[in-house]
Description:
Helices cover 2% and strands 49% of the residues.
Amino acid sequence: MRALMLFSVLFLINTGAAMDLRGPIVSIEKGKSLTLDGSTYPGFYYSLTTGTSYEKLVMNFSSNGSVNIGEATYSLTVSSTGSTAFLGKQYQSLNHLNSPTAMPNLLSEVWSPTKAIPGINQSIALSEGYEIRLMDVMGRDAGKAAALIKFIKDGKTLYEQAVAPLEIFNYTKNINGTDYNLIKGKVDWVMSVNFSNESIKPTYNASISGLAQYSENPMEIKIGDKYGEFEVKSITSKSIILKNTVAINFPLDTNVPILDGFMKFRTSRDVYKAYAVNISDETKSYELRGTPASNVSSYKWSASNFGGMFYDPEYDVSTEWLNVTIDKTNKGIAQGNLVYESTPVKIPYRNPEMAQYRESYFNGGLPIMGFQGERYAALGSAGRLSKILLDTDDQKTLYVGELWDLGEGYTLTLNEIGESDRTAFLTLAKNRLEVYSSVIEPHNTADLGNNTFLYSKEINGVMVPIFSVYVKAVFNGNKGLAQFKYPLMISDSPLEINEGDIFANVTVITNSEKLRLENEQTVPIGNGYTVDATGDIWFKAASSTTMRFYPLITKIQQGESYISTSPLPDVPVEEYIMGEI
């Protein structure tokens, strides 16, 4: 059996666009109500350890795809200590630092650096130009060592503080006439590194934990403030409530931004379904997570509740699901109780002339299948999958002599426009070597129908339409050109998935009409574990007595593409979402 390590090599084909942090797929029909919080929508803040979600969006649909004035509510809860979140970021109400009943008018972004063990003259970098530096260890000769900590801003010393083990340190700053503790932490211990070797002069380290920093540039929020269609209507010591002051409409097959562009809803083409996405062009790393399973014996994820799984909104199609049955006593998933399945489905070709393609498995539609969140074409079975490199309605113009990069070394060249001004001489090459050429006369003669350039290739007995494109028109002016539409490019290097292949903790059981993988050994879950489930899909569990965990797929940006990788360091989720790592 072969162990396949796909999570290090699978690429999303992404030409510079930001990645979607997708929420659940929901109905937006008349009479339906939509509710999103941090547990269901990864664009909102969520703490796995505590199960805390401060943000909630509720929309009631008065007609298909329409929300009347006042029927959409975005609300924030504020804890007694002032913790909250706003538009996906964790915040601290500075007002609550001094009074738990204060109104949360000043919200400061929160950063929580990881635990650090600096040596003398070593610093811990914070945000907004701040750092804390261990300058010395005082009282070491008396056996009562204390850490001398210096607070620095933009390279300039603010002040120093001696902190004994288990003591709290803080930095206070005056904002709008009130003093607030903006940096705090605890010294766990101070220790000599070379205490066992008397011939070496001892050096000292200090363990610092519980670090928290609040921005010195708080956001002021007040009644009447507007965020796109929403307006702040209520502020109390425990909540902030915003309501829509204009109707919100979600037409089919559109992207509709709300909350001043923080999130968008993408609607299906033919049915009133939608999902929310959070997009940030600054983000370089993404945690695509599913709804947490909390203290349950079994749970099932699909595209409807796990944004990492494949979903086609145009045709309302999803193909994959993941199911777990949990042994709570032993905190694990016993053999055969971790199951992943995906089944190919056919969707219409974008190019209407491709409906005439009659070769084998691609007859009657494009067979697509999701596998660990990626979109593939299935070549005759669920165990032979090729990446779909291009599949779009976009129009493309080529001038004579110009190359079109199609991916994986393939290029299309417009060699010339015929003397009749009606024909285009096209060449398809791979790695600069011609593989196919054809002369297309739009609306008259073509490889398929009256307009389609088509290159097919047999792969393991299946004739695959590797590249097809609709030639819309040709022109022969000062510089000849041709216009194209509906390009479809399928990789000619399929992923072969055989029975017995191992993907992390699951093994392929069947690979013909559907792909099914199961675990053959117990998979530990809980106690803060992050476990590789299927190669790209991982489980992240809370460090708490409650059995709470969710599946996730982590992507990092590499150039203009994204690759799957193991989960990022265990830091607050808002840092993943907003690209702080």
